[in-house]
Write a structure and sequence with these properties.
Length: about 325
C-alpha cells in the first residue's frame, strides 16, 4: 500500500506545479487527482490481460491517494520555496548538474525504506567485517563518482561545495539502515579519498576533464572485470531494456539510477571540459559499446544494447535541461 501511494506522489506534485500557470484552484487541485485516477485505472485494466498480474480496486484507491498527497506536497513546496506561478522554477547555474545529483542521491538511498530486522543489520555488519579493505576497481569507481558529484555541486551553485560533500559522506554509513543496501569498506575508502582529492584539486580548470576520464575509466574496468576472455562469444541482446524490465523493481531501479548518473555525468563532464554535447555523447557511447562487445567473451556479464542506448537517450535530456541557462554548443 505504501509503495502504491508513494509512486503516484511525484505525478500529483508535478501536475500541480504544471497547472498553476492557469490560475484556477479547481483545475490545479482536481486535475492532478483525475490524471492519477485515469492512469491508474488504465494500468489496472491492462493487468487483466497480463499474466501473473491482478486488477485491484485497492491499488486504484491507493494510487488516487498518492496523487492527492502529491497535490498537497506541491502546495507545501510552493509555500516553502516561494515558487513563481510562471517562468523557471529554479534559478540555478546548471540544471543538468541538479538533475544528475538527484539521480546520484536517489541511487544511494533508494528505496528510502529502513531495515527493521536486527538480523539483517547483523548480517550486513558481518559482511562488512569480512569484506576486503582494498578492492581497487570498486574504490576507483567510488572515487570517480564522488569526485564527479563534487564538480556537480560546484556547477549547481552550491555554496562551500566541499562542506556539502563532507556532509554527504554521512550517506555511506546511513546505507546500513536502508533495505537492499550493504556498504562495503571500499565505499568508505573511495568516498574519503574523493573528498580529499576534491578539496585539493576540485576547483582547478582541468578538474572536469580529469573527472570525466576517471569516471569512464572506472566504468570500463568494472565492465571488463575479471579480465578473463573465453571463446566462443555469447549472444548479444539487441532488445532494449528487456533484462531491466524483467527484474524486480527493488533491484532494477537502483541499477537504472546508477547508470543514469554515471553515463550522464561522464557526458556532462566531457562537455564542460570543452567538447560539444554531440562529441561527448559519441565518446561515451563508443566506450560503452566497446565494453558490451567485449562482454560477449567475459564470463559473468550479459552483453546488451542497454548502456549505449541509454547514453544516446541522455543527450537530448541534458540539452533540454540546459536550454533555460544557455544553449549547449555542438
Amino acid at each position: 500500500m505504501v509503495v502504491n501511494i508513494a509512486i503516484y506522489v511525484p505525478l500529483g506534485m508535478a501536475a500541480y506545479l504544471a497547472l498553476r500557470r492557469y490560475r484556477s484552484r479547481v483545475l490545479e487541485v482536481l486535475a492532478p487527482v483525475a490524471l492519477g485516477a485515469l492512469l491508474s485505472a488504465s494500468m489496472e485494466m491492462l493487468q487483466l490481460f497480463t499474466p501473473s498480474r491482478h486488477c485491484s480496486a485497492v491499488d486504484l484507491v491507493n494510487n488516487i491517494l498518492g496523487s492527492a498527497f502529491g497535490v498537497i506536497a506541491g502546495y507545501a513546496f510552493t509555500q516553502i520555496a516561494d515558487v513563481p506561478v510562471a517562468g523557471p522554477v529554479f534559478r540555478v547555474r546548471d540544471r543538468c548538474a541538479v538533475a544528475l545529483l538527484l539521480c546520484w542521491l536517489s541511487f544511494l538511498l533508494f528505496p528510502l525504506f529502513p531495515v527493521l530486522h536486527l538480523g539483517m543489520w547483523r548480517a550486513e555488519l558481518v559482511a562488512f567485517h569480512h569484506a576486503p579493505l582494498i578492492s581497487p576497481i570498486p574504490i576507483l569507481l567510488t572515487v570517480a563518482e564522488w569526485f564527479a558529484a563534487g564538480r556537480l555541486l560546484v556547477a549547481a551553485g552550491a555554496r562551500m561545495p566541499f562542506r556539502w560533500q563532507f556532509i554527504l559522506l554521512l550517506l555511506v554509513p546511513a546505507q546500513f539502515a536502508i533495505i537492499h543496501h550493504s556498504p562495503m569498506p571500499a565505499d568508505f575508502v573511495g568516498a574519503t579519498l574523493a573528498a580529499l582529492l576534491f578539496y585539493f584539486f576540485g576547483k582547478k580548470p582541468s578538474a572536469d576533464r580529469f573527472a570525466g576520464i576517471a569516471l569512464l575509466l572506472a566504468v570500463t574496468l568494472r565492465g571488463l572485470a575479471p579480465f578473463q576472455f573465453e571463446s566462443p562469444a555469447r549472444a548479444f541482446l539487441w532488445i532494449p531494456f528487456v533484462g531491466l524490465l524483467g527484474a524486480e523493481w527493488l533491484d532494477a531501479i537502483p541499477i537504472l539510477l546508477g547508470k543514469l548518473f554515471q553515463y550522464g555525468a561522464a557526458i556532462w563532464l566531457l562537455y564542460k571540459s570543452g567538447l560539444g554535447i554531440i562529441h561527448a555523447t559519441a565518446i561515451v557511447t563508443a566506450v560503452l559499446s566497446g565494453i558490451e562487445a567485449l562482454q560477449t567473451r567475459i564470463p559473468g556479464h550479459v552483453a546488451e544494447i542497454n548502456d549505449p542506448l541509454l547514453a544516446i537517450l541522455l543527450a537530448p535530456g541534458l540539452r533540454a535541461l540546459n536550454k533555460y541557462r544557455s544553449p549547449i554548443a555542438d
